Amino acid sequence: MTPGVYSFLMQDLPKKGNGLMYSAATNALYVTSEGDYLPGDGSLYRVDASSGAFVEVPIQTSSAAVTRDSFRQVLENDALLARLAAKRTAKEMEEWKTHMHAFARGDAVASPRSVTNLWGADGLYLDDASGTLFVGELFTANVWSYSTLQDESFGIVSSMHGLEFMTLLDDLTVSPDTLQLIGCNWGNSSIDVTDTGATTPTDVFVLVSGLNNPTSVRWGPPSGNAAGLWSADSLFVSEGHSILPWSHESRILEIPNAKQYFQRAATSSKEQRIQLA
After folding, report:
1. Number of domains in the chain
2. pTM here?
3. CATH number of the domain encompassing residue 179
């Protein structure tokens, strides 16, 4: 890859990028976009790392879940509205709300504007060993999987407890055995864990609470580093609290020896929990 590729990507992708992963096996960059926060408007792009050529990847083939209630839920999500207000002018927010109210009333036709057809494609994680890409939906907290080697969608692998409980799934990673999903609960300011295949709130384990709106979670590199700063056994979390102009309290935090919490017996009992001040 050359520096020019990144410049090309930023300028030419149809929507603003969010999550980013690189696959050496396919020499491709995978980029998520939340779109305009509309149901069905989230996208996943596959970008050739040599040429910059990109295509949108289909993951969900049906838009049946996009209803008037979907738009009402967006308008009632205080965490989302605060997030949008920090990025837009008052006039832009009023225009956006007017647009969303039209969909909620049924005055406008709700049709997906993307091939991927997700509701806020955001978190992204690639398991190099299997070539499986995990894609999180910001609003529904559904996690989809896609094979980068076979170019095939595997559908939903888990729901990290849905819109009512998970107030914005901002990022995700997987446990060392890939049997559990680790998500940044932006609205609840926590790191949550659930098994793949989980579909209800009772399946969720809160690993870390007391954060400032976490936006990213990752394991340390496999070999660590010479200075011992990035242990392979640690989880590293970044906070996004500073999206608000008056708040500058964001941190990058280490959860030391975090792999011990991902033994299935430990998470199932819900007895292990880390509280951060």
Report:
1. 1
2. 0.78
3. 2.120.10
